[in-house]
Amino acid sequence: MKTAQTAQTDAAQVRAGVRTGAGIRTKVKAKRMPREVRERQMLDAAVEIFARRGYAAASMDEIAELAGASKPLVYLYLNSKEDLFSACIRRESEALVTAVRSGIDPEASPDGRLWSGLLGFFAHTAAHPDAWAVLHCQARTHGEPFASAVCAMRQEIVDVVTQLIAATAREAACAVEPDGREITGLAHALVGAAESLAAWANTSGDAAPSEKETAATLMNLVWAGLGNLMNGRCWSATRP
Amino acid sequence: MKTAQTAQTDAAQVRAGVRTGAGIRTKVKAKRMPREVRERQMLDAAVEIFARRGYAAASMDEIAELAGASKPLVYLYLNSKEDLFSACIRRESEALVTAVRSGIDPEASPDGRLWSGLLGFFAHTAAHPDAWAVLHCQARTHGEPFASAVCAMRQEIVDVVTQLIAATAREAACAVEPDGREITGLAHALVGAAESLAAWANTSGDAAPSEKETAATLMNLVWAGLGNLMNGRCWSATRP
Amino acid sequence: MKTAQTAQTDAAQVRAGVRTGAGIRTKVKAKRMPREVRERQMLDAAVEIFARRGYAAASMDEIAELAGASKPLVYLYLNSKEDLFSACIRRESEALVTAVRSGIDPEASPDGRLWSGLLGFFAHTAAHPDAWAVLHCQARTHGEPFASAVCAMRQEIVDVVTQLIAATAREAACAVEPDGREITGLAHALVGAAESLAAWANTSGDAAPSEKETAATLMNLVWAGLGNLMNGRCWSATRP
Amino acid sequence: MKTAQTAQTDAAQVRAGVRTGAGIRTKVKAKRMPREVRERQMLDAAVEIFARRGYAAASMDEIAELAGASKPLVYLYLNSKEDLFSACIRRESEALVTAVRSGIDPEASPDGRLWSGLLGFFAHTAAHPDAWAVLHCQARTHGEPFASAVCAMRQEIVDVVTQLIAATAREAACAVEPDGREITGLAHALVGAAESLAAWANTSGDAAPSEKETAATLMNLVWAGLGNLMNGRCWSATRP
DNA sequence: CATGAATGAGTGTTCATTCAT
DNA sequence: CATGAATGAACACTCATTCAT
């Protein structure tokens, strides 16, 4: 009977340790699993390899092996190396944006909302360093289709931050309504700072700061400035 | 007369626009130039191609063509792809550090010095986006020799910023001596914010803010926070 | 019917004669053959090209084409030019040693054994002139790994000859035990003479002597001298 | 004044030790020498490099450097790598044939003439191992023009030996007039044996036998057989 | 004639991708 | 669907050769 067979096959699942270069992950060699699952495994493997080797140096052989699938199957499901890379970027972009969005507590105070958004960002990038490496370092340097996908994701985050800052301004009934353009600039600066900190934290090895520390560093750096700006107080270059 | 004709032909050295893939630059096809000049052209071309395609995907053929030289000549002068990449990193690192250092007016006040340093960094990265892409995105993801070279450069800039902040702290007779690790984090955040702003400014088309405006945005965002930090005042998450 | 047509086409696999440079061999272009067979074809082609052009001048392209396969397949199976050359040497060495060994009738008299050994050596080198060219001319002039492999093979043959001569000496109850170094020299002389005769026979066209005649010529030339040496009788330069 | 200048230049002749790979020779860098001398230096260098690296792997740069001349001059005098190689073969072939011919004492007895011819051959190949390596190993494996040049040289030597054997037969008033074809075969065998012994002696390093020893080995091997043949006594395969 | 800038043509090697079984 | 045979197209790198100065 099919059920019994499947059960048996499941029980006898081959679990083999694989070492690919400095690879540590364990490859699960199981036959006949639903496409959805297989595809996820392929994307997992691809993200890992792309992060480790870079887009161009990553080999489809290695990805297929790490995914525990045959190369023709990878092509059947994901068409080409480019499409595979695109799929990685799409999945990881969405995951990151979701993590940031869902980290924000809409009931919190303005600074609390910014804080929780940052915390979501840093927690996600710390938990998925390969994904972050792909998005931050690989995707932007390998041709238009990839770069613009990442750009769109970035824009989404910038929008979130922009709305956060605008809301802050409104709630503070601030003296000077800052213009939209300046707010967008501030959002870009904030996101850039966060990205840079995330990359730094991920590559700091053992001495990496916790997500809370990283987020606090950034809040310390910018919150006072944001508050000043909301009240029309500017730093002025006394001696340009 | 033949002599005159030849002279004329020589004088009217062929200047042909070339399009290599998405290439836009104009290649100057001039034969027999001193090694120094050719080498600079090669580095220029290499930086551009490395930025556009990434280290691994960049082809020596394309670099040579863009440099207006043949591949063997590139190898004669620069030995190998690795060496060429190293040479790019070295040259661009030094240029960037020099730009930042020489932008700082040592007579200025602490905030003025930070302002002018940012402005220098900013102006340079905006003027040489390819160089910055190579340093920031490529060099760190392609093996030790490159990564450490970039790391050294980054450290120099962080040092500059660190000294700036430290000087600020001293002049402010600040209550709390900030620790080195936190300063490094702040420097990374600053650099990331600056980079992001630069990219945003570069892609804003007509409405692009001037470098001074961009730098002012960043100063507004961070100067107050830096001041607070120097005095031991932190933002605290009231509702974590 | 389409099925029938396809079947026919499959059955009538394209057999095309190819001329590569001065190539004469007929290449069999058959797709999808077992690895073992393809590998043998590759080695055949490699031996031919290495013999014709020399190790350094032989191109993997030409070898692949003559083998009726693509270059990547050659690399998949044989890894590199060096490994391919090694494989050739190994295969041909073993074949030659086997030919010599299996040609010797252990029941025969000493001279009969030498005769049959020569005949075996001779027949093999005449039948596989490319293989002999690779072993004799190429392998020794291209670096240690190759040289020592050929050296080992040569030693095996010298050993065979040595044992033959030693047996002769024993049976003849010879007066003087010849030293090993001299025997090695004699073996080299014999091999050189045999090789030279083989080449001469090969290029004599219609008037070419049979292998047996050639072998007889050599036996006539050396047997008496060998017998003398075994008995301590030397030719002496009466007038140096 | 020109004379003074030249004198000065001559006095300041650069004498630089060069190390090319395992190279040991000392390069004499002298300007303005007669073409004949320069050409000889070039051929010397070429023979050395061709022997050390093989024809294909030898680089014109290295040859020019070892010859102490500029590359364009090498091309001016010798046209191309092929022509240079041909010139080497021609010069060394002639030298070898001359050495063999002039070594033979026409007054000597038959065996004395053979002996002295062999001695000349072995002495020359031992004194010029690079030349012999080029003739024996390189020239025959790099295409028709070279192979046939060497073949012609070889034929000259075979002719010399053939005449020697024929003269021997005549002088011995031998019982059976051996036919010309058999004598030619014997000559080929002899020459091949000598070649093989020369190569062996040259590659034996420190333990290399002297020329007299080598020649004696060969005489011991063949003289008795030759004598027998001249008298119609053949070895016969008792048990073929 | 030396110097050194310059290159066309080719080398060994790799990899994404396909297809028959 | 896994297996493995098969390849087109490219890539880094080298070298004999030329020519202006």
UniProtKB/TrEMBL annotation, chains A, B, C, D:
**DNA-binding as UniProt keyword:** yes
Q: Does the keyword Transcription apply?
A: yes
Q: Coiled coil: which residue ranges?
A: none
Which stretches hold the DNA-binding feature?
A: 59-78
Q: Which UniProt keywords apply?
A: DNA-binding, Transcription, Transcription regulation
Could you tell me which SUPFAM superfamilies the record lists for this protein?
Homeodomain-like
List residues of the HTH tetR-type domain: 36-96
- According to its UniProt entry, this protein's organism is Streptomyces syringium
InterPro entries noted in UniProt:
DesT_TetR_C, Homeodomain-like_sf, HTH-type_TetR-like_transc_reg, HTH_TetR
Protein name stated in the entry: AcrR family transcriptional regulator
